[in-house]
Amino acid sequence: MIWWVILIEAGVFAGIFTVIVLVAAHGDRKYSAASIHNYPPDIREAYFKTHDRIDVSYSSSNVILTKSFGVLLFCGILLVCSLLAGVKTFWDGFFLAFGLMAWIGMYDTFFLDWVLFANLKCFRLEGTEHMDKAYRQKWFHLKGMLFPGLVFALIPSLVVGLLTMLIGGRQ
């Protein structure tokens, strides 16, 4: 593995992820089930007091579709990362992908959620703009990163490990 390539990939991956999050939080997309399910329960409840309730559970078709698209997108990005880093075995591909997913989880939690989400008004749902304390719930975001975040990270990591092994030709 080429470590300096991996460090560059981590920065590029964070940039791509940030763009995805900002696009998802722009305009009407912010009010879709695929976005609202990421908000803490008290913010969702306050929002649904003045807006039509939509299914934001993990079993809703919109959330499943969004998560499935995310898995495919991350698999593609992480596969390219593993190939650029010179990875050839299942385990190297798996650990590289899992490491980058863990990095994105930490970046998302500690910067995007704790700093941007908590302080920028563009992330506030209509009718919840006054709920400063609810938007600063660090434990909610940390729990989400640990579970289901790290468990979710296993899916693209396994796929990338398998594809890396098939492309690289080694176990």
What would the principal axes of the Cα set say about the shape? Answer: elongated
Report the end-to-end length measured between terminal Cα atoms.
15 Å
Report helical residue fraction.
Answer: over 70%
Mind telling me the C-alpha Rg?
17 Å
Annotation field: number of helices: 7
Mean pLDDT: 94
Q: Which strand-content bin applies to the residues?
A: under 5%
Total strands: 0
Query: Major sheet: size, sense and barrel closure?
Result: none
Task: Please write the string of helix (H) and strand (E) elements.
Answer: HHHHHHH
Which secondary-structure class do the elements indicate?
A: mainly alpha
Contiguous low-pLDDT stretches (5 residues minimum) are none
Features:
0% strand, elongated, mainly alpha, 171 residues
Give a quick rundown of the structure.
With 171 residues, this protein is an all-alpha fold. It has 7 helices and no strands. The protein is elongated and about 55 Å long.
Summarize the helices and strands and which ones pair or pack.
Blueprint: H1 3-24, H2 33-36, H3 41-50, H4 61-84, H5 90-119, H6 132-135, H7 138-168
Note down, in words, how this protein is organized:
It is a single chain. This protein has 171 residues and is an all-alpha fold. It has 7 helices and no strands. 26% of the residues are buried.
